[in-house]
Amino acid sequence: MASFPPSPSRRVDKMVEELMVWVLRAGGWASVLVTFGIVITLVKESWPFFEAVPFGRLLTDTMWTPLFSEPQYGIGALLAGTLVTTIVALLVAIPLGTILAIYLSEFADAKFRDWVKPMLELLSAVPTVVYGYFALLTLTPLLQKIYPDLSQFSMLSAGMIMGIMIVPYVTSLGEDSMRSVPMLLREGAYALGDGKLGVAVRVVFPGAFSGLAAAYVLAISRAVGETMIVAIAAGLQPRMTINPLESAATVTAFIVQVSLGDLPHGSIGYQSIFAAGAVLFLMTLGFNLAGHALRRRFHRAT
Predict the structure, then answer these.
(1) pLDDT, tens digit only, all 302 positions of the chain
(2) Burial class (CB in 10 A: 0-12, 13-18, 19+), 88
(3) Where does 135-267 have alpha helices with state H?
(4) Is the distance from CB of 101 to CB of 168 less than 8 angstroms?
């Protein structure tokens, strides 16, 4: 059988396809190189700090005051504020986001879902500084009616608003994961006499848990790395406390606070910014690795 040479249009399509493959490959390598650049910068700038400050001192000191005349380097004070605000945010975002995802996936009609989902995703487009002032000027006065001793700056107010901000991450990814569960599983549960709620809770939710785990990890990483909300509403005073009704500084709030000053390059105060950033990077990396392992485990189980 005689073979015919490819047509000019086919050759153009092949060239465009090869070009797009190289563009996508370059984009993937660019993200890897940027990540390596961030790691190298953090290690290079924070290494002198960790040489001057023993690691044991980071754990034993109770205050984080690297700019004082008698500095203390208890980074636990910053980690406590970060973890408390993150936990408060997750207590708001994960239940609310999961319930909304189940409702949009299993109960809402198509028109309502197509209208509500973009409206929810608009919450993630609001500047975080707006959320911060909303927490400070609106939510905090409301909470003070419930807790009269609540100060103007509190981790509770910042964490609750931060949770509302990350609800779209949980809802959007969770709803996409639930809709990807095969319809055959739903039909089998219906055939056995289960109702809509039972199917959603006992069939769809476990089947989509690998995707939900990814949404939860993204929400955790987003909450840990949030800056403006906690800097405005939670306070800027590092404090070793787990009481959400008190004010405290987070790692990101400290970085913002110190970066606004005129610190000489190479000073211990300047290096403390990168040391705090390195600790935050390791925290986020740990959460992502744990989420990846959890996602693989449940994906293999389903």
Answers:
(1) 455 566 667 777 788 888 888 998 888 899 889 989 888 988 888 888 888 888 777 777 778 887 777 778 888 888 888 999 999 999 999 999 999 999 988 888 888 888 888 888 788 888 889 999 999 999 999 999 998 888 889 999 999 999 999 999 899 888 888 888 888 888 888 888 888 888 888 888 888 888 888 888 888 888 888 888 998 998 888 888 888 988 888 888 888 887 766 667 777 778 888 888 888 888 888 887 877 777 676 655 55
(2) buried
(3) 140-146, 155-179, 183-191, 196-199, 205-207, 209-224, 228-233, 251-259
(4) no
CA distance 206 to 178: 9
Helix (H) or strand (E) holding 72: strand 72-73
Helices (H), 53-154: 55-60, 76-102, 110-121, 128-134, 140-146
pTM of this prediction? Answer: 0.84
Chain-centroid distance, C-alpha 184: 33
The listed CATH number (3.40.50.620, 3.90.1150.10, 1.10.3720.10, 3.40.190.80) that belongs to domain 64-301: 1.10.3720.10
Question: b/e string for 189-200 if b means 16 or more Cβ within 10 A?
Answer: beeeebeeeebb
Domain ranges of the chain: 8-52, 64-301
Distance separating alpha carbons of residues 38 and 166, to the nearest angstrom: 25
Distance CA 265, CA 22 (A): 40
Cα 244 to Cα 222: distance, rounded to the nearest angstrom = 19
- Distance (Å, rounded) from C-alpha 91 to C-alpha 244? 12
